Amino acid sequence: MGFREFTNTTIFRAGDTVAEAPVAGEKDTVPLVVARAVQVTSATGTPPSPRVVARYDGPLPAPIVKGTKLGTAAVSLPDGRVIEYPLEAGADVPRQACRPGLTLARHYLFGWLS
């Protein structure tokens, strides 16, 4: 097989949001983004069908600074390969001014609804 029989497909571009993580802070969530492009190579004519799982320990405590590594994105390919990419905060999240425990309680009591 030659090089022309394979193609690269971009799953995420640099800066794309992979998931929204719950935050115990001024905002309810923070976007989890990839810092660099995520590409997979597959045979031409066979579209890749990866499964992407975001892994992080949440709810995340504030303050959070944009660019901080918060977890990983596991990309599972049909051939059984799993490739992990770091996930970073896509925005700053300041500490909640009052009642920081309220966000945590709301997440644990009602998080299953979202």
Summary, kept brief:
The protein is mainly β and 114 residues long. The protein has one helix and eight strands, in the order ββββββββα. It is elongated.
What does this structure look like?
By secondary structure, this protein is mainly beta. Helix content is 10%, strand content 45%. The protein is built from one helix and eight strands. The protein starts with 5 loop residues before the first strand and ends with a helix.
Could you outline the blueprint of secondary structure elements for this entry?
Elements: E1 6-12, E2 17-24, E3 29-34, E4 38-43, E5 51-56, E6 60-61, E7 69-76, E8 82-89, H1 100-110
Parallel strand pairs: 2-6
Antiparallel strand pairs: 1-4, 2-3, 3-8, 5-7, 7-8
Question: What attributes does this structure have?
Answer:
elongated, 1 helix, two-stranded antiparallel sheet
Placed side by side, the strands forming the largest sheet appear as 5-7-8-3-2-6
Helix content: under 10%
Report the mean per-residue pLDDT as an integer.
Answer: 84
Shape: elongated
How many angstroms separate the termini? Answer: 47 Å
